[in-house]
Amino acid sequence: MKPPVVSDVDRDLVVNEAFGPTFQGEGPSTGRYAHFIRLFGCHLSCTWCDTPQTHDPARHDLAAEQRILSIEDILSWLASTPADLLVITGGEPLLQPRALERLLCAIRERELATDVEIETSGTIAPTDVLISAVTRFNVSPKLAHSGLRRRQRIRPAVLRDLAGSGKAVWKFVVQQVDDLDEVQELVGTYGLHPVWIMPEGTDSSTVLARMRLLADPVLARRWHLSTRLHTLLWENSRGR
């Protein structure tokens, strides 16, 4: 096993994978041509997590799953195959705020992406610099079926900060119709809007079956329904 890598927290990012061009597979930008940077590390451990290689030593050699990329490395990669949309995901990207600030400011200065989205669990508040630099936070508060205690997965002050930023959309991972009641409680308590419901699943048959199950109940609540386009196209292949 390789030893863990060590980064300069202000100038380097600990990355699991960077890939694209591909399509954004979830939420309001579904289908858009995009680059992805998947950052390493997560402080949560959902039972159904579809990216355990970013944090789970029981299933993955974590030293082999992480690499250090300098901001200049990432900028050069983005410039080599331009895409208007950059999606930063994880793991939990907001565990690396300072280097992420520097990266996003450099991307804006060099005009390497028109839009930047950060996928986050809604448990870590973004800095003011990140709020200014991003187009959108795709926030996925975890529900009870994640296997996490409520105090781990629901941080009221963070949810209110994100809602107040004016740059958050709320994308809930749902397994069954009854989960929508829990979503409704969070939406009402914290004033979350707009709401996207996305089926949990890492294969196309599960995603399609759950979308069909959820479609009418989601319509009845006047929410949005998200597919998982990358799963429908490529199943659970990494780097797509």
TrEMBL record:
It comes from Amycolatopsis coloradensis. The lineage of its organism: Bacteria, Bacillati, Actinomycetota, Actinomycetes, Pseudonocardiales. The gene is queE. CDD domains: Radical_SAM. It comes from the Bacteria. Residues 29-236 form the Radical SAM core domain. Belongs to the radical SAM superfamily. 7-carboxy-7-deazaguanine synthase family. Pfam families: Radical_SAM (PF04055). Catalyzes the complex heterocyclic radical-mediated conversion of 6-carboxy-5,6,7,8-tetrahydropterin (CPH4) to 7-carboxy-7-deazaguanine (CDG), a step common to the biosynthetic pathways of all 7-deazapurine-containing compounds. It catalyses: 6-carboxy-5,6,7,8-tetrahydropterin + H(+) = 7-carboxy-7-carbaguanine + NH4(+). This is 7-carboxy-7-deazaguanine synthase.
